[in-house]
Design a protein that fits this description.
The protein has 175 residues and is mainly α. It has helices at 4-43, 56-86, 92-121, 147-160; strands at 127-131, 136-140, 168-172. It has a three-stranded mixed beta sheet, with helices on both faces. Strand 1 (127-131) and strand 2 (136-140) form a beta hairpin.
Length: 175
C-alpha cells in the first residue's frame, strides 16, 4: 500500500503536469489573439493600396516630430552659447558674438512661429518653417502645391522677412 508521502508526490507531480499544460494552452490562446489583432492592424494600414493611402497620424507625427527636433536643436544651441558666455576663459568679443547669435536664434524662433501661423491662416492644415542665416524652408501639409499656392506662400514669406525668393524653399509633405 502507498504511503501518504507517495500520494502527495504523485499529486504534486500530476499537479505540475496540469499546470504546465494549462500554461501552454494559455500561451497558445495569447499567441492566437495577438496574431489576430496584429493582422487586423496591418490590414488597416493606410499605405495599403486596397484601403486608401493617406495616414493622418503619420502626417501629424511628422509635423510634431519636426517641431520637437527643431526645439531640441535650438535648446542645445542656446545651452552651448550660454556655456560660452558664462565661461571665465572666453574673451569679450567671443561673448558678444555668442550673445548676438542668441538674439538671432530668438528672432528666428519668433519669425518661424509667425510664418507658420500666417500660412495656416491661408487655409493650410499645418506648416513647419525653419529659418537659418542662408535660407528658409517651408513644409506644408498638402500632397501637392500649385504654382499659385507656392507663390502665395512665397509672397507671405518675402513680405514678412528679408529673404529673397532664391533662398526660400516651399515643399509639400506627402505620405
Amino acid at each position: 500500500m502507498a504511503t501518504k508521502k507517495e500520494k502527495t508526490r504523485k499529486l504534486s507531480s500530476n499537479g505540475k503536469k496540469v499546470l504546465v499544460l494549462c500554461c501552454m494552452v494559455a500561451l497558445l490562446v495569447v499567441t492566437g489573439v495577438l496574431n489576430f489583432v496584429l493582422n487586423n492592424q496591418l490590414g488597416k494600414q493606410p499605405d495599403d493600396p486596397v484601403n486608401g493611402g493617406n495616414d493622418p497620424t503619420a502626417v501629424e507625427t511628422f509635423f510634431s516630430s519636426h517641431r520637437s527636433n527643431r526645439e531640441t536643436a535650438r535648446a542645445e544651441e542656446f545651452s552651448y552659447l550660454d556655456a560660452i558666455i558664462s565661461s571665465e576663459n572666453t574673451s569679450e568679443t567671443v561673448k558678444a558674438s555668442a550673445q548676438e547669435k542668441q538674439l538671432e536664434l530668438l528672432s528666428f524662433i519668433e519669425k518661424e512661429l509667425v510664418l507658420e501661423s500666417l500660412i495656416k491662416a491661408k487655409g493650410y492644415d499645418d506648416a513647419v518653417v525653419t529659418m537659418s542665416t542662408n535660407n528658409l524652408n517651408v513644409i506644408v501639409k498638402k500632397a501637392e502645391l500649385t504654382k499659385e499656392e507656392v507663390s502665395q506662400i512665397l509672397g507671405t514669406i518675402l513680405q514678412e522677412t528679408n529673404y529673397v525668393a532664391g533662398q526660400v524653399y516651399v515643399v509639400p509633405y506627402t505620405v
